[in-house]
Design goal:
The protein is elongated. It has helices spanning 24-29, 44-49, 58-71, 77-91, 138-151, 190-203, 245-254, 267-272, 281-285; strands spanning 7-18, 31-41, 97-104, 116-123, 125-133, 155-160, 164-166, 177-186, 218-224, 229-230, 235-236. 31% of the residues lie in helices and 27% in strands. The chain is of the alpha+beta class.
Length: 292
Amino acid sequence: MWEMNKDEIRIDNLEVFAYHGVCPEEKVNGQPFYVNAVLYTDMRPAGLEDDLSLSTNYGEICHFINNWMQENIYDLIETVAESLAEQILLNFGSIQELELEIRKPKAPVGLSFESVSVCIRRSWHQVYLSLGSNMGDREAYLKQGIDQLKRNSLIQVQRVADFLETEPYGGVEQDKFLNTVVKLRTLLTPMELLTRLHDIEDAAGRTREIHWGPRTLDMDILFYDKLIYEDDTLVLPHVDLENRYFVLEPLSRIAPNFRHPVLGKTVMQLLEQLPEYTGNADAADAQTGAEE
């Protein structure tokens, strides 16, 4: 199956004199560090047009790494790598993923060695969330949740489905829900994202006294890339979403062709199987530009 180009720009042994280290003298005297990076991007447009503006300027990135490592000081090279990777991904939009190694050849180990290093791989992740509310000003709570997502620098909201009113799900008598689905990309891990969602729910006064009961704001991770994952606190894809009209109908408006990694069916195919589905022209129109 065809996939978007995942070309590589490599930076080998970029030398940066900086002041990172646990020992006090390391922060006073400084020492050389070496940076190796593999930047994953799509270079085909630049290659076809011979146009630097369509590519990732590796010179700019080298200077960015050098300046950032000199202006920010940490104890651990683990923190240097983590923070630097995040800043590169946030500041260079054409880079979707990277591998980053920070080498420290003069670490105060007290033995003969060539260097110590840490190497990490980080990337943007595509996520779909469902949001729902059936207490108080439902629309205000949904907008509050979306606004809080936008305020997080590690989250980029890309699309929001139209709000949809539905009957409550799960057999508990309560008021109707207002629902939506949000498409975003994030640098957060699934558990980090889940923690942020719980914080946003708590800020909206969410309580968890009754299973499937009324709530001011409910936020769930539907899909995280194509990840299949399960532990005591999180299951991906979200459990039972294939039977939930209030999830699939708004999701079909922004991602009708997204394919469930376990069931193998698209969102639109799952929606069409539900008894509540009566046909939706808007969902069909939304297929233009939707991703598989």
